[in-house]
Amino acid sequence: MLFNSPVFIFLFLPVALLVYFLLNRANLTIVSKQWLIISSLFFYSWWNVLYLPLMISSILINYFTALQIQNNQKRKKVYMLLGVFFNISFLGYFKYMDFFISNVNAIAGTEFPLLHLVLPLAISFYTIQQIAYLIDSYGGLVKEKNFYDYVLFTTFFPHLLAGPILHHKEMMPQFKTTENKQVNYHNLAAGLFIFSIGLFKKVVIADTFAEWATAGFQNSAQLNLIEAWATSLSYTFQLYFDFSGYTDMAIGVALLFNIKLPQNFNSPYRAINVIDFWSRWHMTLTRFLTAYIYEPIVRSFGKFSFNRAMFATMVTMLIAGLWHGAAWTFVIFGFLHGFAMVLNHYWKKTKIKLPVILAWFLTFSFLNLSFVIFRADNLETVTNIYKAMLGLNGIVIPKILTFINTSAVTFGDVYSHINGKAQTTAYIILALIFILRFPNTTQLAKSFETTLYNLVLTFVFLSVSFSMLSRVSEFLYFNF
pTM of the entire structure? Predict the structure, then answer.
């Protein structure tokens, strides 16, 4: 079920919200948790009910493994390792088995048949969230043992499909707080305001860029110079507005239930280096990678050294790249970002500071180029787009500029291969201004007050978004 679908907005969400608070008002707190769990499972199985037994099995195995870790001090490490192994194997089988088989066939010349497994929805998100829970149980950081709280922590529908990735210590206590079980009108207003921003970002902005990005990657061999840059920038903006829009909607919906989800974006395209970018982009994933991959690798060396830390950075980013998908393009994406972060760390040691504008331009250019690899289905598409971005496929400019007397360009329809129009250029410029100059959703939420201005703004965002709900739409991070 999509957040931007009429069935979610006008049926599922109002019913889930109304019943939840009615049950709490009747002091049926356990039943209200059960209702949220049932609602979340229904929300998840709306896509394909066959995914549901897999997720439930994963939750049950991880919960009872965590209990064994907490209650059996002598064998807690064994249970922790078994639990982590189970989760990695569970994720690896469904997400990477065909990738593994195809590479074995390519290297060894074998012909093992592919399994053609369908990737269960949200498996990457709920699996790593539970890995963190097991590791923290081993470290003695988990005190909560309530089954319903654990299941709700894992399945709570606002974050279930694409994050933010939750940590038990910031979430499970919220499900117990008495005041969170009562209707909070300020949270209702703020949640609706945040949801409206996210819906607008997704439906109006991201889905518009999606048309040009999709057409551009499909016609990569035919792109001219301007089309290639419009394609790469369209995807760069689509990815941000799509994913941050989903996060805004998730945070807004959760706030309706008086649950505060962690921030996941902090104006990442304002970053002035790659380290800065990853502290702003998909922040809950960065937090997980740092705490549960990077830091354990560094500690495994015993004595700390800068070079060892850089090695750990490379390994962590390679894993981050592969986490996004079973393809060499994701591995290359992770390698490039790992290499850029290492280079960034070594550059900082020189204490040479670039002008802020130049640092931002270099960072954004790197991100834009790397997202071509992130989006492309294969390396041939990457090569085609990069060649076009260098002008090797020709330069086409509008006919209105025929007064320019040169044989270096062709006059015609600039955006014919990406289904673009005159507003394509305007959208790209406006998007750049928006991400650089306007406050982000978190900043708006912190200063939110129930004023007539915010009410009108919410109404405008929702109205414009509702008028475009019929467009074909998909959240990008559901694929990862």
Answer: 0.93
